[in-house]
Automatic annotation (TrEMBL):
Keyword flag rRNA-binding: no
Keyword Transmembrane part of the UniProt annotation: yes
Pfam families in UniProt: SecE (PF00584)
Full protein name: Preprotein translocase subunit SecE
Keywords: Membrane, Protein transport, Translocation, Transmembrane, Transmembrane helix, Transport
InterPro entries: SecE_bac, SecE_sf, Translocase_SecE/Sec61-g
Transmembrane segments: 32-52
Record localization: Membrane
Length: 63
């Protein structure tokens, strides 16, 4: 139990005193970048999926 208490105390000290937390504006910018990149990726994958689906439907209808 003593080791667990020591771990928690050291972890709290590390988080509160030694970690450099980003500013809120930096977090907003990073979140916006991730959102935009995710949307672009989803559109690219959706387009590729649509093209493959359409191509395979045309291929199967030819038989």
């Amino acid at each position: 139990m003593n080791k667990l208490q020591q771990l928690v105390k050291e972890s709290w000290t590390e988080v509160t005193e030694n970690v450099t937390w980003p500013k809120f504006s930096e977090l907003q910018a990073s979140s916006t970048l991730v959102l935009v990149a995710s949307l672009i990726f989803a559109l690219v994958v959706g387009t590729i999926d649509f093209l493959f689906k359409s191509g395979l439907e045309l291929f199967y209808q030819s038989f």
